[in-house]
Amino acid sequence: MSSTVPPDLYPIIVVQDRYQGAYSGGAWLAIAQADRPLNGTTRVAWVMVDGPGGGDVRASDF
After folding, report:
1. What is the per-residue pLDDT across 21-62, written as a single tens digit (0 to 9) for each?
2. Sign, Cα dihedral of 24, 26, 28, 29
């Protein structure tokens, strides 16, 4: 396995999972291309507010 990350994935942001892995299976989430647009916001903002960082139903769907 390569230890290099393709440059098109940057920036990568690591955040703690709001639900401590109950839905995602991991305590931390790595968000590639964190500054890219997604649904009128950025990928990292969506993760923190609406996706896995949102309510129980949203987090479960994610």
Report:
1. 888 888 999 999 999 998 899 999 988 888 788 888 888 887
2. negative
